[in-house]
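User: You have something folded?
Assistant:
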Amino acid sequence: MNYRRFEDLPVWNAAIDLAVEIYALTDSIHFRRRRSLKDQIERAAVSVSNNIAEGFERGTNNELLAFLYISRGSAGEVRSMLCLLERIPAFRSLNSEIEVIKKRAESCSRQLKAWAQSLQNSKFRGERHVNQKTRRIDQAAREREEFLKELAEIRAKDKR
């Protein structure tokens, strides 16, 4: 499926949900005297969706890939900080919430990795590189594939 806007991307929406969950977590009283920890985990969480958006808007696969890996790194940073919180006795009462959020961050990481791998295996270089010539070539390839599919269906009917 081709996405026209980053807001339509499932991984961007998952990253936004991750940030919302982090903000809900850091709104608890446990973070009142731990401003630097609160700021760091919030910044890392927001960085996941922001880097997806920025990479998507850049218009080339190479730049998108770079930002996807930055985003994935931020998701890893969120997970690392959540692991730290699990080990700090003052946060023990939040362990069930932390576990749920860690799973969301892991899901974002997996989605980002899969997307990055598919881009690395793609011949498409990005929207910035699309011009009339590439559109004609792409259209001709789609028409050829459609014709070959129809031909195969006709041959299959003839063999029956």
Observations:
- The helical segments are 10-26, 35-58, 61-87, 95-120, 132-159.
